[in-house]
């Protein structure tokens, strides 16, 4: 028996194809034949018909056909399926034999050739005696044949040849050897394929015909065999549907067989074969679920059919193979396009195969543990005469025996022993590892990382059993971190235990130490006695001694290992191991914590290192050093103990170098920071803890940053979440969980002991030289040196502000663009204790808005910290936000000489420009002077002297000026005419003499100038009196170059009588003026509408009366004579309308010289009225105001 | 009836694993751990579904030769995994569901325990989740904790009595 006994036979696994033999081809010496053969067999693609060809000599002897059985009555089958049967029909018995023969139709020696050909066919027929194999003849011809029917000779001769060879016309082919060889060959092939199919069809019929003769009692095996054969022939016929159907029947029949210990292997073997075929066909038909269901059924049926207990490992091996074969089929189907899913992929089958392989190993281990003295039996019961078995799945020592009783128990015993001894030599681990790695590859593909890890652990363990410790360690080490990161400590401990064994057996120091460290740690779920043992071993190793062997190790391996360890001890060399802990969970935990997030440079930096051991016994460490990002501090933070190696065990509980399990050890470190590090971060980059010492072995545990290992972040999170109350501990002890790592601190400059005051009067006014007084006073105990002032706009604000802000120390001159926004490092000199200095800063802000100003004072001082003299640079800064506002608002308006608002001015007609300066500053402003700079287009009517010189404006007060201007005609100017500038020179009233005056220039608005054809102005008194003549003169001025036709009319008014021209038409020459005189006679008092003057220009229809109203008054105030008034008044009193009276009094009272008497009289009357009406107070007030 | 019951934290570390004591404990640990592959995949596939329509029961995770592994995930992504013997045909989907529901209730009770810190491994002997003895049938989950919890609350409420209604309101706010 070969070790690959369990492998499925090749002929079972291949795809059955029709077998056709080609004879008469000399492929070695004949180039034409060679080409024909190549065309048949080379580059067979999937679209060619499935035929397997073989070239055989014409006189090849085919397997002999056994004589036909006439009756099955006495026939008892010896087994289910002969081992040679499948191969016979795949490779030995052809479906069709093709005889190639070179013969052209016009062959001169036709007769001779024809008979030779017939002889060849006859020889082939002879050797196929009794078989249904078809024979075909192919004539290789040099000439291209004519189309059928045209060549008379050809058809005649063909018929003759068929006759001679006893062939049907369908079995004779012609193969012209021309250019289109491959095309002809493909046509030939298809014809062959048809013949082959007919052959297999008849074979199926033949097998089926046997079934009639079978009976159920003696021929049970034959049922299976025949069914299998039918299915196999169907496959050869490429009728896979029928093949599947027949295989399924065969499968059911197999399980109907009476099973017994003696034939169970045969049944299982056949069941396995048929199951394989079914699954394969199901996958081929793209019904993977059927395949899986069949396989499950198969396994469920066969799982319990273990057979002989002594050979139970055979069952495990068979099961393993079933799973593996199915996995292979599944995988193959996936490669051909099937999609698998996470929960249904070949990996599971490989995994199960591996599981059974492991079981096989276990069983083999317990069943095959024979003494070494037991020899392999001689003669070998597993040898057969032919070297192979007759039937699949039978025992070699009792082939063909169907009886369930063991005829020869002794022989049986020897046979079993032989199998067991053979099994002992099987490399089980190799099989298991191969299967596991197959499974790993699959699970990797289907996103099962944890399954993959699990399988890798199994692989590692298997390597360990196979004593390949290096590979075992490699695998285990690889997956460990997965379990660690997910916190599956039980699994991690189990893996670590195996890894520790491996590293012990290889005497791998570093690995041994690392695994020990972790197994002692809190992530390990080992019992305390185990931990003690490991700790003892670890201490031994650190003292350069051999550790005790790990339990459950192979005795021989331990012996080798002990030798290795002895070598290690004698070997001088590097005995210091640095182990980074961030990737695992060692038994010492470390946390570093600075006392504060920042330290002043004149105070020593203090931090604690907390250590805690989780091992069962106290342990000493020899050295602890802390590294910083600035390595200069490293030297200050080292604790070292010069202890002898053996002291590690002695006096363990004493001293600060000793870690007591479960107790937190706190170590305080202190150092003075360098002044260069001010403003920088000091970070603990690593903490190194040395266990053991350099004379023995030394392990340096290296924590990156401020401590913490693979598990601590999760623990910290849990601790933060917890609201458990922790029991109170003595003063100097802390709870481990409550310590939070703080691995960095800032060094900040010393606290300044000076005061900086700012004095100013906000808000600042635009463009003024704003004065900021900085007072610096030293409160230091010693003299401070090198005091420097930086002042100005705080950097980091809007870039536009920088452009529009200027700072200077000299307030006497206005600063311009060239001045900076920030003055840096103005040396101020030294300051004695208590001394004070003052500095004036002038800021000019060009735009409004708020700005942040920074005043920064720095100085140097000598300080002693921790008995070290250091020069400290201190600084103090003050920030102030200053708002800048406009000092005043200037409003400008154009009004007509009637003080009416003008939207546009008229050429050559005087108008008024009024400026109004409203102070918006909260502080008093002094307007030093103002100036109107006129644009060239404007001319002044009178002087342009400033009217507001040296005026002081308080908040909200305003100063107004009025200028009379005239604009000559300019034609039509788009957007109006520039007026000029208004310049105000001003300063704060509180500002000192030498502070320059600020000139604020205001651009006056443009004004639209319009030409008018006719200018009318009226000459009339400011008021009229009732029944007194009111002379009015209108001046009409022609402003055009034309003679103007003017129509003038005056409309009557109810309030006036008038004399003058009521309607007139006249002409005015260019540039000249016409006067119109009217005499109005008011009839009523009050504000009265004048009789309106209507002017109509014939040339300018759009010169309307609307426009005219702008130049001439439309109404006039008409007063009443006092005499008349008083008469009127009495009338009013009678009506008792007092309010009306008061109003009336205000408007109509007139004070002129001759009316004094009336006035007194009036007063008397008023008094009388007032007393009478109890309105004395308000009336008196009214009277008073009248004055 | 289950041979192994496990409660797994959101971060995929075990909070509680209990298996039939007669068998290899490690095997079940591995089985539960590997089943998380499928749980993760199912959760991520489910992530897109609406929260209210989400089914907590994940169904059969994967079959092995001898066992069936079922999964269940709570809204806070705590996973329950249950391993059942394949040969046990009495356990249908419905039974498994109800077992999970009971397990969920028990877990909720554990979370209600004021002395339990969420995320800690559930270790206390008497606060155990349903004991999964193979002899014991599913419904026989015995949970001591809820009654304990209720007792605690009762005591608290009793102590609050002197404070009147206000005090009790305060308690409920907690």
TrEMBL record, chain A:
Entry keyword annotation includes Cytoplasm: no
Domain Trafficking protein particle complex subunit 11 C-terminal stretches: 1037-1095
Task of the protein: Involved in endoplasmic reticulum to Golgi apparatus trafficking at a very early stage.
Entry's family note: Belongs to the TRAPPC11 family.
Name of this chain's protein: Trafficking protein particle complex subunit 11
Transmembrane segments: 1156-1175
Subcellular location: Golgi apparatus, cis-Golgi network
Superkingdom of the organism of origin: Eukaryota
Residue intervals of the Trafficking protein particle complex subunit domain: 263-521
Gene transcribed to yield this protein: TRAPPC11
GO BP field: constitutive secretory pathway; endoplasmic reticulum to Golgi vesicle-mediated transport; Golgi organization; regulation of protein complex stability
GO CC term (a single one): Golgi apparatus
Keywords: ER-Golgi transport, Golgi apparatus, Membrane, Transmembrane, Transmembrane helix, Transport
């Amino acid at each position: 028996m070969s070790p690959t006994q369990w492998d499925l036979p090749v002929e079972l696994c291949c795809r059955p194809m029709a077998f056709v033999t080609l004879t008469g081809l000399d492929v070695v010496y004949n180039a034409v034949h060679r080409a024909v053969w190549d065309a048949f067999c080379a580059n067979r693609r999937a679209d060619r018909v499935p035929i397997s060809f073989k070239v055989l000599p014409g006189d090849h002897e085919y397997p002999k056909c056994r004589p036909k059985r006439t009756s099955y009555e006495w026939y008892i089958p010896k087994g289910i399926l002969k081992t040679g049967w499948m191969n016979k029909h795949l490779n030995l018995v052809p479906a069709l034999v093709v005889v190639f023969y070179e013969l052209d139709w016009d062959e001169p020696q036709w007769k001779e050739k024809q008979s030779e050909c017939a002889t060849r066919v006859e020889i082939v027929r002879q050797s196929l005696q009794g078989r249904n194999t078809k024979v075909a003849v192919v004539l290789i011809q040099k000439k291209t044949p004519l189309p059928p029917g045209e060549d008379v000779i050809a058809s005649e001769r063909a018929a003759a040849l068929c006759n001679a060879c006893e062939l049907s016309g369908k079995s004779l082919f012609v193969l012209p050897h021309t250019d289109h060889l491959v095309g002809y060959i493909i046509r030939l092939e298809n014809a062959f394929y048809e013949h082959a199919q007919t052959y297999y069809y008849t074979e199926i019929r033949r097998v089926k015909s046997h079934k009639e003769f079978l009976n159920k009692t003696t021929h049970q095996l034959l049922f299976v065999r025949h069914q299998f054969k039918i299915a196999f022939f169907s496959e050869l016929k490429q009728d896979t549907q029928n093949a599947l159907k027949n295989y399924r029947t065969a499968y059911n029949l197999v399980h109907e067989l009476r099973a017994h210990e003696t034939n169970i292997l045969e049944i299982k073997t056949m069941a396995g074969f048929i199951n394989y075929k079914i699954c394969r066909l199901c996958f081929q038909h793209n019904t993977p679920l059927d395949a899986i269901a069949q396989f499950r059924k198969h396994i469920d049926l066969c799982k319990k059919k273990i057979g002989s207990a002594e050979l139970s490992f055979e069952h495990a091996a068979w099961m393993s193979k079933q799973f593996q074969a199915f996995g292979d089929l599944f995988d193959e189907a996936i490669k051909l396009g099937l999609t698998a899913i996470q929960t249904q992929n070949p990996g599971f089958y490989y995994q199960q195969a591996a599981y059974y392989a492991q079981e096989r190993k276990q069983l083999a281990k317990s069943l095959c543990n024979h003494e070494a003295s037991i020899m392999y039996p001689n003669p070998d019961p597993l040898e057969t005469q032919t070297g192979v078995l007759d039937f699949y799945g039978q025992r070699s020592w009792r082939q063909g025996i169907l009886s369930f009783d063991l005829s020869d128990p002794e022989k049986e015993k020897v046979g079993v022993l032989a199998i067991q001894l053979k099994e002992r030599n099987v490399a089980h681990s190799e099989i298991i590892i191969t299967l596991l790695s197959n499974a790993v590859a699959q699970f990797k593909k289907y996103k099962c990382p944890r399954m993959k890890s699990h399988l890798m652990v199994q692989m590692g363990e298997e390597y360990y059993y196979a004593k390949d410790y290096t590979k075992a360690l490699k695998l285990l080490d690889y997956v460990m971190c997965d379990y660690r990161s997910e916190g599956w400590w039980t699994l991690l401990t189990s893996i670590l235990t195996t890894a520790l064994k491996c590293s012990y057996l290889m005497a791998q120091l570093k690995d041994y130490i690392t695994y020990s460290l972790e197994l002692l740690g809190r992530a390990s779920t080992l019992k305390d006695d185990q931990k003690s043992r490991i700790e003892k071993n670890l201490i031994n190793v650190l003292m350069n001694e051999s550790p005790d062997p790990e339990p459950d190790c192979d005795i021989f391996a331990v012996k080798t290992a002990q030798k290795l360890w002895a070598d290690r001890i004698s070997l001088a060399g590097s005995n210091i191991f640095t182990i980074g802990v961030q990737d695992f969970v060692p038994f010492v935990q470390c946390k570093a914590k600075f006392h504060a997030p920042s330290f002043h440079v004149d105070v020593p930096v203090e931090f604690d290192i907390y250590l805690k051991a989780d091992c069962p016994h106290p342990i000493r460490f020899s050295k602890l050093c802390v590294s910083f990002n600035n390595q200069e501090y490293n030297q200050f933070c080292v604790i070292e103990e010069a202890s002898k190696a053996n002291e590690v065990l002695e006096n363990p509980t004493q001293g600060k170098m000793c870690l007591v399990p479960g107790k937190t050890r706190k170590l305080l470190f202190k150092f003075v920071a360098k002044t260069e590090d001010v403003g920088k971060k000091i970070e603990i980059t690593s903490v190194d803890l040395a266990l053991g010492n350099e004379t023995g072995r030394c392990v340096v545990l290296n924590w990156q940053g401020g401590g913490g290992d693979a598990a601590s972040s999760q623990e910290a999170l849990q601790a933060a979440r917890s609201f458990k109350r922790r029991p109170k501990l003595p003063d100097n002890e802390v709870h481990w969980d409550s310590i939070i790592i703080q691995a960095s601190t800032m060094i900040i400059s010393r606290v300044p002991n000076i005061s900086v005051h700012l004095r100013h009067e906000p808000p600042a006014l635009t463009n003024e030289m704003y004065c900021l007084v900085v007072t610096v006073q030293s409160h230091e105990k010693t003299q401070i040196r090198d005091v420097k002032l930086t002042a100005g706009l705080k950097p980091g604000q809007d870039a536009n502000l920088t452009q529009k802000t200027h700072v200077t120390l000299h307030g006497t001159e206005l600063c311009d663009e060239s001045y900076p926004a920030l003055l840096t490092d103005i040396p101020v000199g030294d300051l004695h204790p208590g001394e004070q200095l003052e500095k004036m800063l002038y800021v000019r802000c060009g735009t409004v808005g708020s700005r942040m100003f920074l005043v920064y004072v720095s100085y140097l001082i000598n300080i002693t910290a921790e008995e070290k003299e250091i020069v400290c640079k201190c600084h103090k800064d003050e920030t102030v936000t200053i708002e800048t506002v406009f000092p005043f608002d200037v409003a400008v308006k154009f009004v007509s000489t009637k003080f009416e608002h003008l939207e546009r001015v008229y050429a050559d007609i005087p108008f008024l420009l009024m400026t109004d300066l409203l102070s918006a500053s909260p502080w008093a402003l002094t307007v030093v002077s103002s100036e109107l700079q006129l644009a060239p287009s404007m001319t002044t009517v009178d002087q342009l002297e400033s009217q507001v010189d040296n005026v002081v404006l308080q908040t909200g007060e305003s100063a107004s000026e009025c200028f009379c201007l005239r604009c000559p005609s300019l034609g039509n100017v788009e957007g109006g005419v520039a007026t000029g500038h208004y310049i105000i020179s001003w300063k704060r009233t509180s500002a000192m003499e030498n502070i320059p005056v600020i000139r604020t220039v205001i651009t006056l608005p443009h004004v639209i100038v319009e030409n008018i054809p006719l200018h009318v102005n009226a000459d009339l008194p400011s008021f009229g009196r009732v029944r007194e003549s009111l002379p009015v003169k209108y001046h009409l001025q022609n402003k055009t170059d034309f003679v103007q036709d003017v129509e003038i009319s005056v409309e009557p008014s109810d309030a006036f009588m008038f004399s003058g021209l009521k309607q007139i038409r006249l002409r005015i020459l260019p540039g000249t003026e016409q006067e119109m005189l009217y005499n109005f006679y008011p009839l009523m008092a009050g504000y009265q509408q004048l009789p309106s003057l209507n002017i109509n220009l014939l040339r300018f229809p759009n010169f309307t009366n609307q426009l005219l109203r702008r130049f001439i008054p439309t109404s006039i105030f008409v007063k009443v004579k006092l005499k008349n008034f008083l008469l009127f008044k009495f009338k009013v009193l009678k009506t008792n309308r007092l309010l009306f009276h008061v109003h009336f009094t205000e408007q109509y009272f007139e004070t002129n010289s001759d009316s004094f008497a009336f006035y007194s009289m009036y007063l008397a009357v008023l008094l009388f009225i007032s007393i009478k009406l109890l309105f004395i107070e308000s009336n008196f007030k009214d009277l008073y105001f009248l004055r | 009836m289950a041979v192994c019951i496990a409660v797994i934290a959101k971060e995929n570390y075990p909070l509680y694993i209990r298996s039939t004591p007669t068998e290899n404990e490690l095997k079940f640990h591995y089985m539960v751990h590997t089943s998380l592959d499928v749980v993760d995949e199912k959760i991520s596939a489910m992530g897109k579904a609406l929260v209210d329509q989400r089914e907590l029961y994940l169904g059969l995770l994967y079959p092995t030769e001898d066992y069936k592994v079922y999964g269940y995930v709570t809204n806070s992504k705590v996973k329950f995994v249950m391993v059942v013997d394949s040969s046990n045909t009495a356990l249908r989907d419905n039974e498994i569901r109800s077992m999970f529901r009971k397990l969920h209730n028990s877990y909720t009770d554990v979370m209600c325990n004021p002395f339990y810190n969420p995320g800690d491994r559930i270790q206390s002997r008497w606060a155990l989740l349903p004991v999964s003895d193979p002899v014991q049938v599913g419904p026989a989950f015995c949970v001591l904790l809820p009654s304990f919890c209720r007792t605690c609350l009762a005591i608290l409420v009793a102590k609050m009595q002197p404070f009147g209604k206000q005090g009790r309101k305060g308690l409920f706010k907690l």
